[in-house]
Amino acid sequence: QVQLVESGGGSVQAGGTLRLSCEASGFIFSAACMGWFRQVPGKEREPVASIDGSSITSYADSVAGRLSISKDNTKKTLYLQMSSLKPEDTDMYYCALVFISSPRCRVTSMGVGDVGVWGQGTQVTVSS
Q1: 78 forms bridges with which residues in the sheet?
Q2: Does an H or E element contain 4, and which?
Q3: How far is CA 49 from CA 1, 20, 127, in A?
Q4: Considering only CA atoms, which of 101, 59, 75 is closest in space to residue 22?
Q5: pLDDT of 50-87, one tens digit each?
């Protein structure tokens, strides 16, 4: 059974850091296109970071330089290191297994329609 289980969200003050984790099972994690999406209230979930089977990463402009996506293939775990957090980063964050070929495993090329499996989501709250 394909499953993604997230952890690590919480509340933090502006400028703080958080690390989100997503444990994967049931598929070949090392080769997968994985992403982190956030749920903007009233809008469709949007990708903020992606990583492909070769560990090539991409980021939304709004988070570049502050968020870092990585993975540990041995632990089958995806991470999102969040730093210099802003109140506007407050959202639900979801990890995702994205059914998209490696050349297109970029935040500018993926959308919710490409996601095969979602994690349960974890809340990140940043106070000013």
Answers
A1: 22, 71
A2: strand 3-7
A3: 25, 12, 22
A4: 75
A5: 999 999 999 999 999 999 999 999 999 999 999 999 99
User: In whole angstroms, what separates CA 17 from the centre of its chain?
Assistant: 15
**Cβ contacts of 83 within 8 Å, gap of 6 or more:** 17, 66, 67, 68
Residue 116 makes CB contacts below 8 A (sequence gap 6+) with 2, 96, 97, 98, 99
- What are the backbone angles phi and psi of residue 16, rounded to the nearest 5°? -80, -175
Q: How far apart are CA 123 and CA 125, in angstroms?
A: 6
Q: Which residues contact 91 (CB under 8 A, 6 or more apart)?
A: 38, 39, 40, 41, 123, 124
Q: In whole angstroms, how large is the CA radius of gyration of the chain?
A: 13
Q: What is the pLDDT of residues 82-128, one digit of tens each?
A: 999 999 999 999 999 999 988 899 999 999 999 999 999 999 999 99
